Amino acid sequence: MPKKKEKPLQKPDKKRVGSVVHGPTLFSDYDIYLFKQGSSFQLYEKMGSHPMTVEDKEGAHFAVWAPNAERVTVIGDFNDWDPEAHSLAVRWDGSGIWEGFIPGMGKGDLYKFHIVSRKRKYRVDKGDPFGFYWEISPRTASVVWDLDYEWKDEEWMAARSQRNALDSPLSVYEVHLGSWRRIPEEKNRVLNYKELASQLVEYVKDMGFTHVEFLPVMEHPFYGSWGYQVGGYFAPTSRYGSPQDFMFLIDFLHQNDIGVILDWVPSHFPSDEHGLTYFDGTHLYEHKDPRKGFHPDWKSHIFNYGRNEVRNFLISNAFFWMDKYHVDGIRIDAVASLLYLDYSRKKGEWIPNEFGGRENLEAISFIKRLNEALYQTFPDVQTIAEESTAWPMVTRPVYLGGLGFGMKWNMGWMHDILEYFSRDPVHRKHHHNQLTFSIWYAFFENFILPLSHDEVVHGKSSLLSKMPGDDWQKFANLRLLLGYLYAHPGKKLLFMGGEFGQRKEWVHDESLEWHLLQYAPHQRIQQWVRDLNRFYRSEPALYQLDFVPGGFEWIDISDWEKSIIGFMRKGKTSRDTIVAVCNFTPAMRSKYRVGVPESGFWREALNSDAKEYGGSGQGNLGGVEAENKKAHGRPYSLSLTLPPLSILIFKKDFRESKTVPF
Question: What residue ranges define each of the domains in the chain, with the CATH number in brackets?
Answer without folding.
Answer: 14-143 (2.60.40.10), 170-426+455-484+501-535 (3.20.20.80)
